[in-house]
């Protein structure tokens, strides 16, 4: 389990900083990462809706570093990568489901990532896929509340005013 936790830290650090850089570099955002942000309201399969270069930079390199640095066994790696993909899909599903284990153990969850995809919210909550530590340390953490919608269900709303 220590290897899995360490792999989570490695992948989270890599993906958080590369993701942040893709937002701050106008060329990378316009030509690479903006494809993913066409999804203002995320949905599960949208987690993997991105430019191939983004998949290579974030997922392949991040996964390879997690595997190599922690020296995971192939069996542990299969568990870890399946867990990471399921977590990423859950983060983009747009649903806050009661009893969802990811929502219980991770503050970086569906609502957290929904805020990132909302208008002007893309300046916040870059951290992915597991922890929110980098956003908290670098001042880009956007707290949120869950508000009951008139039509049913819950909606994530930022607790700060996002107007420029």
Notes on the protein architecture:
- The protein is built from 7 helices and 2 strands, in the order αααααααββ.
- It is mainly alpha-helical.
- The chain has one domain (2-158).
- The longest helix has 23 residues, at 2-24.
- Helix 1 (2-24) packs antiparallel against helix 3 (52-70).
- Its EC number is 4.1.99.5.
- Belongs to the sterol desaturase family.
Index terms:
mainly alpha; lyase; two-stranded antiparallel sheet; 52% helix; transmembrane; Fatty_acid_hydroxylase; iron ion binding; single chain; 164 residues; oxidoreductase activity
Q: How does the overall form come out from the CA principal axes?
A: globular
Strand proportion, as a percent range, falls in 5-15%
What number of structural domains do the residues give?
A: 1
Strand order of the largest sheet: 1-2
Order of helix and strand elements from N to C terminus: HHHHHHHEE
Q: What structural category arises from helix and sheet content?
A: mainly alpha
Please, how many helices? 7
| Distance between the amino and carboxyl termini | 44 Å
Helix content, binned percent: 40-55%
Stretches where pLDDT is under 50 for at least 5 consecutive residues are: none
| Rg over CA atoms | 16 Å
Mean pLDDT: 88
Question: Biggest sheet, in brief?
Answer: 2 strands, antiparallel
Q: What's the count of strands? A: 2
């Amino acid at each position: 389990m220590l290897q899995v936790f360490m792999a989570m830290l490695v992948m989270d650090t890599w993906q958080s900083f590369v993701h942040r850089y893709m937002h701050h570099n106008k060329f990378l955002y316009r030509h690479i990462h903006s494809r993913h942000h066409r999804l203002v309201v995320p949905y599960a399969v949208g987690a993997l809706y991105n430019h191939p270069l983004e998949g290579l930079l974030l997922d392949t390199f991040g996964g390879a570093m997690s595997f190599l640095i922690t020296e995971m066994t192939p069996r542990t790696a299969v568990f870890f990568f399946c867990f990471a993909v399921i977590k990423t899909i859950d983060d983009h599903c747009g649903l806050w489901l009661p009893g969802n284990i990811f929502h219980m153990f991770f503050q970086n969850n569906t609502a957290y990532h929904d805020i990132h995809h909302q208008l002007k919210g893309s300046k916040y909550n870059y951290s992915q896929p597991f922890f929110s530590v980098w956003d908290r340390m670098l001042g880009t953490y956007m707290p949120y509340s869950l508000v009951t919608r008139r039509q049913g269900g819950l909606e994530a709303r930022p607790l700060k005013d996002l107007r420029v």
